[in-house]
Amino acid sequence: MEISDHTKVAILGAGRDGLALLDLLHHIPSIEIVGITDRNPAAPGLQRARELQIPVIINVPDLIGNHGVNLFLDATGDPEMEASLHAHKPPGANILSGSASRLLWKLIRHESKLEAELLQSEKLAGIGSFAAGIAHDINNPLQLILGLAENLAEERDLTTVHEQAQDIIEAVKRTSAICRDLTRYSRRASPHQDVLVPVNEKLDEALKIARYASSLHDIEMIKQYQPGAAVKGNPDELLHVLVNLITNAVHAMERGGGTLTLETTVHDGQVHVRISDTGCGIALDKLDEIFEPFFTTKAPGKGTGLGLYNVKTIVNKMHGAIAIDSQIDRGTTFTLTFPKAEPAG
Ligand SMILES: Nc1ncnc2c1ncn2[C@@H]1O[C@H](COP(=O)(O)OP(=O)(O)O)[C@@H](O)[C@H]1O
Ligand SMILES: [Mg+2]
User: Fold this and answer.
1) Model confidence, pTM
2) Domain 3-92 carries which CATH code?
3) From ligand 1's centre to the CA of 254, what distance in Å?
4) I need a labelling partner for 71 at 20 to 30 A (CA). Which of 143, 206, 321, 326 fits?
5) Predicted confidence (pLDDT) per residue in 79-107, tens digit
């Protein structure tokens, strides 16, 4: 991220338009919202700003003159405000007002819709490539059920009948668990839903799904979870991130197996999530490229090249960071760092 990317924004007006701008812009890491203001103390955007710990500034001339704002978004629709902004804004600061700021809002909303579409299509493409694994996992209990049912048709001993019926019930439960996990994963992430997400649980959930991506047979699993690792974000999106990183790790160890390590640690108000493999590694000069959309070294049908692009988008949105440590033929560690979320209350 370049420093020149950083924009300090002030939002004037905290009604419907101001609130929408606030909701959309606060997700973007390179934008700092230095304050929001409204004449009406009960304006909905002011309430939201307090929740997001964004300064509510009552004194408008102070907001205009003293906060180093680069961009004023005027969502008041008030011609007096417009005049006052033009008269008092610091030189070099820009103003977006009226229909222009509504246009901005529409564009951002459109972009976030496109992003959600991209996420969804990548997820579905992923599930397509899981098909063989899923079929295998569903077929095993089905074969078992078939065998048991054939036995039952002949069985006379009541105790054995009961036992085998119980085995059938267990096998059916296993199959429906697979279907449940997959349906939950394939559904669209519900938008704008930031909640407390327990990371360790999500890692386990992701592991169940990533199993379908590739066989975990020759892979040793190590889990080192620190209890209480929780972050703020959209649970569906975080799951998507973890499934992607685990799938990549497993793919990297396709030849000859290896060790997959999932680790969480919490310190200094930060949650670290580490996903390590002992696979093929990533060449130093590829480290930037791998985040580009459609960059893949995998065969068609196996990779879309959208995985890490989406991972980066989501992690940015959660105000997190990604670090990679990799050595050719030794393995790769992806470390995600998020601000620690405190349980409410
Ligand atoms: N853990 C890893 N080990 C080695 N290479 C990796 C790893 N993760 C990602 N890569 C490389 O980055 C590329 C892009 O990954 P990604 O965006 O997830 O797309 P895809 O998995 O569909 O190829 C992969 O094709 C692979 O070359
Ligand atoms: Mg991938």
Assistant:
1) 0.76
2) 3.40.50.720
3) 12
4) 321
5) 888 888 888 888 889 999 878 888 888 88
